[in-house]
Design brief:
The chain is an alpha/beta fold. It has helices at residues 52-60, 82-86, 96-99, 106-117, 122-135, 152-164, 182-199, 210-216, 234-239, 244-251, 261-265, and strands at residues 3-16, 24-37, 41-46, 67-72, 75-76, 89-92, 170-174, 202-206, 219-224, 227-233. Helix content is 38%, strand content 26%. The strands form two sheets. The protein has a six-stranded mixed β-sheet with strand order 6-7-8-3-9-10, sandwiched between helices. A four-stranded antiparallel β-sheet has the order 2-1-4-5, covered by helices on one side. Strand 9 (219-224) and strand 10 (227-233) form a beta hairpin. Bound molecules: adenosine-5'-triphosphate. One of its GO terms (molecular function) is ATP hydrolysis activity.
């Protein structure tokens, strides 16, 4: 397999300033390193505030690391050049409706990245948008719909369409499916797995759900207080966890009935 992403010693500190006092340095993420192969799925787990979203944002370019480097196919990504990476690394957020523009049609929102990143004519852009709608299980008619006219599952499909429209190498999903009904969530996760197989995309999922992780992840990274405490294959971490937290996170009974057994079998 080919190494698509390499994260080398990235860390993130924030300065909390209150009044006249000197700012207090808050460490959101201590230096961590890991890599991801093409077509592989990495799950990031940990308790609240452990630094999971910080890693997701640093990889997607939404935040700049305090130190360290990120390499895509061996090429160092400039943390200040969002355009360089937005074609190759896309992010999907938890709140689908809020991440879509309510005043722009679905088709126009999907065509937008094509205006900025291709020199295609209008006809080619439209046919690529329609083809992408089909890939995520939507219809050509949805081109002219506005986000509020769609169900929550369809809105998340539009977000996935927007994420794949430039045929990226990596998709980062930060608790992207937590708000969906269990049956819709299972459909969306199966859609992501189909897209991964067709397009060879690598995924990074931030999630609290042991069921989702066991269903989709090849590797798991466990975070605790901004530190990576365990990293390995899903099989190894389930069979032989080295940390109590890993055991608790992976063997916790689902509180939310995230995926039912029948949907996992799909
Ligand atoms: N913009 C920011 N300014 C200051 N501190 C921040 C900022 N973003 C995150 N932090 C702090 O960094 C730490 C890690 O936050 P992060 O959002 O990465 O955690 P998380 O594991 O994703 O949590 P959750 O599961 O609740 O989303 C937390 O202590 C948080 O308060």
């Amino acid at each position: 397999m080919t190494k698509v992403l390499e994260v080398v010693d990235i860390s993130k500190y924030y300065i909390h300033k209150t009044g006249w006092l000197p700012g207090k340095k808050i460490c959101a993420l201590e230096p961590i390193s890991f890599s991801l192969e093409r077509g592989e799925t990495l799950a990031i787990m940990g308790e609240t505030g452990s630094g999971k979203s910080t890693i997701a944002k640093l990889i997607a370019g939404a935040e700049v690391p305090s130190q360290g480097d990120i390499f895509l196919n061996g090429q160092r990504l400039d943390p200040h050049n969002y355009r360089q990476r937005c074609q190759h690394i896309r992010m999907i957020f938890q709140d689908a409706l809020r991440s879509l523009n309510p005043e722009t049609s679905v088709g126009a929102q999907l065509a937008e990245p094509l205006h900025f990143n291709t020199d295609w004519d209008q006809e080619k852009k439209t046919s690529h948008v329609v083809e992408t709608l089909r890939k995520v299980g939507l219809l050509p008619d949805h081109y002219n719909f506005y986000p509020h006219m769609l169900s929550s599952g369809q809105q998340q499909r539009v977000c996935i369409a927007r994420a794949i429209i430039l045929e990226p190498q990596i998709i980062v999903a930060d608790e992207a499916f937590v708000a969906l009904d269990p049956s819709i969530r299972a459909q969306i996760i199966n859609l992501m797995l189909d897209l991964q197989q067709d397009m060879g995309i690598s995924f990074i999922f931030v999630t609290h759900s042991a069921e989702i992780v066991k269903h989709i992840a090849d590797k798991i990274l466990i975070m605790h207080h901004g530190r990576l405490i365990e990293f390995g294959t899903t099989e190894a971490l389930i069979k032989n966890p080295q940390q109590e937290l890993t055991k608790n996170l992976l063997h916790a009974e689902s509180k939310h009935n995230v995926l039912t057994h029948s949907t996992i079998q799909e």
